[in-house]
């Protein structure tokens, strides 16, 4: 996982969550992050294409990069809530720890 230099400020649900646990902990805000970053990157890729022949491939590539970036951001937020680094009132109530 890594070395945590800061002490958790919120209750710890799981100190080193697995990928499956982290992804299953995604909430609506996490999925909206993925959607927002992906949606914002598609027109940026289209406009960055410049010439008519490369706009389509540039748009798809930027969309995939945005999808991966949004997923990694949501993953970081979800893992942070499980490890007690971010506010996690919903997770504490759900896991009752």
TrEMBL record:
<dbReference type="Pfam" id="PF10785">
    <property type="entry name" value="NADH-u_ox-rdase"/>
</dbReference>
<dbReference type="InterPro" id="IPR019721">
    <property type="entry name" value="NADH-UbQ_OxRdtase_su21_N"/>
</dbReference>
<protein>
    <recommendedName>
        <fullName>NADH-ubiquinone oxidoreductase 21kDa subunit N-terminal domain-containing protein</fullName>
    </recommendedName>
</protein>
<dbReference type="InterPro" id="IPR053229">
    <property type="entry name" value="NADH-Q_oxidrdct_subunit"/>
</dbReference>
<feature type="domain" description="NADH-ubiquinone oxidoreductase 21kDa subunit N-terminal">
    <location>
        <begin position="8"/>
        <end position="86"/>
    </location>
</feature>
